[in-house]
Every structure is written in structure tokens, then in C-alpha cells.
Amino acid sequence: MPTFETVNLTSEKSAVVIEIGSTYTKCGFAGENAPRCIVASKAKIQDSGEEKLITSYKDEEDLYNLLLHFIHYLYFKHLLVSPKDRRVVIVESVLCPTLFRETLAKVLFHHYEVLSLLFVPSHLVSLYTLGASTAVVVDMGYKETVVIPVYEGFTVLKAWQAQPLAGELVERELLKKLMADEGSGDSASHPKEESIDEGVVENIKVRTCFVTTLERSQKIEEIVHPPPVDYSLNGDKFIKIDGKTRESAYESMFIMDDDEISVPTMILDALLKCPVDTRKALAENLLIIGGTSMALGMRSRLLSELKNLINSPKYVDKLPLKSFKFHNPPAKGNFVSWLGGAIVGATEMVVSRSLTKDVYQKQKCLPDWVNLAFNNNYELKHKYFSG
User: Fold this and answer.
1) Whose CA is closest to 308, among 247, 276, 267?
2) What is the C-alpha separation between 333 and 285, in angstroms, rounded?
3) In CATH, what class is 132-165+260-331?
4) Cα separation, 115 vs 83, whole angstroms
5) How far apart are alpha carbons 262 and 279 in whole angstroms?
6) pTM of whole model > 0.85?
7) Per-residue pLDDT averaged across 41-67, rounded?
8) CA neighbours closer than 13 Å in the CB half-sphere of residue 336
9) Domain boundaries in the chain?
């Protein structure tokens, strides 16, 4: 990993660091230890006045309008700075669609006229918070869980794993359980499905549910469950969340599907695809990030699952590993990646590797590692990145 060289902040204003997630966006300034705001990734549509997720766009024009209003909201509601005076660091997933990143760059350069733009991969900058160069980064977000190993600062791309085993699945399963008729006879505790919006289900998941242990999950039908909880709806109705629902809400992330895939098997499969001499170091450097990773008991359950699966017939001969260890990042799981971007934004990298406004207006193109023009032609790549 590159040596850190701090920027002289007396002569240059701190860069704006933005991480746009599928549900929430983190935004703040480089060099700070936490984002200034964590807001829903929604933009208000002027015609109807309704809010719409910026990831639910129809086409490029629709996305441009959504990002236009969303970036305005971030700068003039929360950051309270002029976009023209600051460099911008965008923390993005390696799975981010090219259309999204190119449209975002177009909005920032053409409409807000930012000084420069630097895209950094979320899994890689997360390691900056640890000062480490080797780890398996497990990003448990809302839409999906992504597993990407990084060894000595280099991403092992052939080993990446991604599955829709994340917060959205948990909420979907939780809603089904809440709607199930448990024969209580109390209609107030079982409101109609349309009366429970996504925000309520998310609140119930975060406030009342937890990840149970491996031993208890294997006897989920026999054990004594924790007491039920009443969740109030608008003050006059309530939902009764029984103990079994609270304890089994996250089980969908650990139960193998027809392809024998779960979150723990994703980690082991990623290790299997890494070179043999790197597996031990990677297994002892697991970094769990993302909002879903903050669920109570998540890391303990993952560790138990990994230790149990490593002795199964599928892995016992292929992965002779004895231990798994987790890192404790200096931030909450939902903004570890943002903090890594804030560290990068406070180094010389934000100057030397950013795409400037002048170069973008001249070339009309955004450097992208998946584009062979930037991978094969050194002179062209150097021209873009040098600014």
C-alpha cells in the first residue's frame, strides 16, 4: 500500500468524501473521523414531490436528474460548502454500474463544477482504517454481501463472491413472519401488510432482532425463546414480535440454498480461489463491514459457522485452516469504507491521482480499470490519471 503523505490543509480545503449506498449515503470531509451525515439515498422528484431511491432509475436521463437533486441536497443541506471549492472522493463498490459512475461524474463536473474527482474502491480503502495490507473484506450491505480478498494491497479479483444475502433478504423474511397468522386472535397485533412500510420493518429488524448462536439455531424449534416485544404503529396499533421471530430473523443468511451457498460458505469459497500460500494470512485477517454486519451477534455467529464448516467434507481436505480472526476497525461497520475514503482524501493521493475538471472536459471520458484502453495503453492511462 502507498505511503501516506498528508496534504497541506492550510493551502487546500478538505476534500468532500461521499459513499453512495443502495439505501444510505455517507457524506463528510477528508481527515475527519466520522461522516457529517448518514442520509437515505433518496431524491425528491419536483413534479410529484415524492422521494425516490437514486438506484431505482429508469434510464440515464432519469438518473442524471435524481443525482442532480441528491448532490444539491448533500452540499446545501448538510455540508454547507460550495462544490466549486473542493475536490471530491467517491467511495464506490467494484460492482458499481459504469452508467452510474459516469453519470455521477457528469453531474459533478458539468453542473457543480468540482475541482477534481477521485473514485476509490470501498473494499481497498477499508484497509486504510487498519493500516493493514492483507484481509478478506466482507461487505454486508442492504442489497447483497460482497466478499473480496486483498493480499499485500492487491485485490484477488478472481476470488470475489457476491450474493443477495443481506439486509433486504432479512427484512423480506421478517415481513413474511410478521404477516403470518399465529392464531393469537388479536387483530391489532397482526395489521395488514400494506400498513407496514419498509421503514417500519427496518426499525423492527434493528431494534428487536438479533443473530442467535449456532447451537441454538440447530434447535430453533425446541429451545425457549426470548420474550416477545410490542412495536407501536402510529401510537394506536402495535405489532407483537414473538421471541422466535426475533431470534430467527437473520437465519436466512446462514441457511444454505440449493447451491449450498450462505455467507460463511462465500468466505470459504473465496479463500479456496486464492493462492495456497495466501490462505492462512487471509483467514486470520477477516474484516466485516457494512450496515448488516452491525447486527447483534453477527461476528460471533460467523466465527462459529466458519469453524464448523471447515471440518465439513466439502472443505476439510481443501482448506486445512486452524483459525479465523476478525479485525476491529476504529469505526462502526456502516461507515468503515467512508472512513477509509476520508483517510485517502487527506493524503497526496487526492491530488496526484484525481481526474481534474479540465482533463474531463477535454477527454469526455472517465478512467475505468475495466476499460482495456486504460489497462493496455500506459501513455493514455498516465495522461488521464496525472491530470
Assistant:
1) 267
2) 16
3) alpha beta
4) 8
5) 20
6) yes
7) 88
8) 29
9) 16-126+334-386, 132-165+260-331, 167-252
Model confidence at 288: pLDDT above 90 = yes
**Does the structural domain 16-126+334-386 have CATH classification 3.30.420.40?**
yes
Contacts of 129-134 spanning 24+ positions with Cβ under 8 A: 129/329, 129/330, 129/331, 129/336, 129/339, 129/340, 129/343, 130/287, 130/327, 130/329, 132/285, 132/327, 133/1, 134/278, 134/281, 134/282, 134/285
Residue type for position 175: L
Phi, psi of 90 (to 5 degrees): -105, 120
Sign of the four-CA dihedral 367, 368, 372, 377: positive
Supply the pLDDT for residue 190: 52
Give the DSSP H/E element, type plus range, for residue 18.
Answer: strand 16-20
**Mean pLDDT within 311-331:** 93
Q: What is the pLDDT of residue 375?
A: 57
Distance between CA 237 and CA 159 in Å, rounded? 48
Kindly give the pairing relationship between strand 88-92 and strand 16-20: parallel
Residue 206 makes CB contacts below 8 A (sequence gap 6+) with: none
Bridge partners for 44 per DSSP: 51
Tell me, what amino acid is at 357? K
Rounded Cα distance between 274 and 297, Å, is 28
DSSP 174: H
List the one residue out of 373, 275, 238, 338 whose CA is nearest residue 29.
338
Task: Assign a CATH topology to domain 167-252.
Answer: Actin; Chain A, domain 4 (3.90.640)
279 within 8 A of 161, measured Cβ to Cβ: no
